[in-house]
Amino acid sequence: MPEPAPAVRIFISYTHDSDEHAAKVRRLADSLRTVGLLTVLDQYESPGPSAGWPFWMERELQAANYVVCVCSATYRRRVDGLEAPDKGKGAAWEGNLIRNLLHDAKSDTRKFVPVLFDAEPDDSVPLMMKQFHRHKLPKGFPDLCRHLAGQTSPPPPVNPELRVVPPKPAPTLDPAWNLAGMVEGGGPVATNAAAPTVAPTKPTVTREQAKAELHDLLVSLMSADELRRFVAYGPHGARLSSSLPGSSVSLGVLTTELIALLERDGLLGPDLFERLRQDRPYRAKDIDSVARLWSELQR
């Protein structure tokens, strides 16, 4: 039996700007732990580490896979060494440790992840982190989790089939420019001939058949947990997730309810199938086949 993968360890660096700010930091740490990321926070250490705060900070910064830096104006001043000497010694100490770790890592920035709460401006990011990728919370929390969990973007399709593009049609001219016809027929051809009427084609598949095909596709692509995550990270994810039945239902029932929700909200369209292609590129042919059915219904 393979050994379980080691937990991703997160250390949160921040300043105690206010009780509300500290409460948001605690909520961030609790939420990261909820999604399976082992998060270390000074608020979890009560009454305090036995070896003292400086040693504790140094040990945890070195042990962490990622350091989430909650940036604020106060945090920037203290990390950048612009605060009064008698204020914020803890944050200044952390700032020196981070600076040394960056130096040892030859400026490899992947370990340090700045975050900004609410409308906190980018100017609150310390100078040594100005060029780092940052996340704005709460809206950016799912992307932060993907970053810390090491989830990469879906790869492009492998060896996609060549699709032959039809030749570009020749340019058309006004019928009056039928110069040869003017000589042979004695005058220009008529320019106001009515275009033939083409009856609209009826779709060869019913909406119920298309929904059944989509149902079978989703069941074959994902487990129930994967389908819930797919919904949660997509458009209107929070609202759709809250409307889905609980975890006790089967994958088939869950899929049926999801399709009904998507149909109700007008979300059964090209964007859905494009997300499926990105999520499961190796099933692109099957996804395209069902997508064509829905495209035919829209004619």
UniProtKB/TrEMBL annotation:
The residue ranges of the SEFIR domain are 7-146
Compartment list: Membrane
Please give the start and end residues of each transmembrane region: none
Q: Is Transmembrane helix among the key words of this record?
A: yes
Keywords, ordered alphabetically:
Glycoprotein, Membrane, Receptor, Signal, Transmembrane, Transmembrane helix
Q: How does it sit in the membrane?
A: Single-pass type I membrane protein
- Its recorded name reads TIR domain-containing protein
